[in-house]
Amino acid sequence: MKFYKFILFIGIAAFLSCKKDKAVNYTVEKTVRTDTSNNSGNFLATKGSLFISVGDTIYSFNAAKDSIAFINVNIDSNKYFGITAINKQHTMSFGISSPGFAAPQLVNNIAGGQLLFSKKNSRQYTLSQSRGQGKFNQITLDQYMQDSLITSGTFNAVMVNKIGGNSTIVKAKGSFNLQK
Prior knowledge:
Layout: H1 2-18, H2 25-34, E1 43-44, E2 47-54, E3 57-62, E4 67-75, E5 78-86, E6 92-99, E7 106-109, E8 112-117, E9 124-127, E10 138-146, E11 149-163, E12 166-179
Antiparallel strand pairs: 1-4, 2-3, 2-12, 4-5, 5-6, 6-8, 7-10, 8-9, 9-11, 10-11, 11-12
Protein name: DUF4251 domain-containing protein
Organism: Mucilaginibacter antarcticus
């Protein structure tokens, strides 16, 4: 059941992220910047970046051109917060979620995560239930909702890349700094 809730979470996040496409870009950005009554806790970043390091490769999203959203979701009375991103070319997407409420100086477990590629040799990394060694499968929000800053922080995760019948476990880490 948790897996299906996570997929629903990612689906909602992908929908919000896709709204930054050029055809509706102005309206969405204007709404995010000027709607001071936004009680949903869902924000489309207009500035900032998200970096993900998997092995020796670093993947990045830039809010000025890609879609990066910070979202809060309530599923069956369970609260989750997270970050979702999709690049402008729609060839790479990322999502990470954590149970509970977002707050500054918060360290919390990661409930779900995935890094997907839709190129010829597509790869799919999903959060592993294995905790790995050290502080993995955790997200840290250093700052949250301070002036124009949506959030900034880091995460560490153990992810699985399934290729055919084989699975490779990798450690992923990332950082984010998202602004309205």
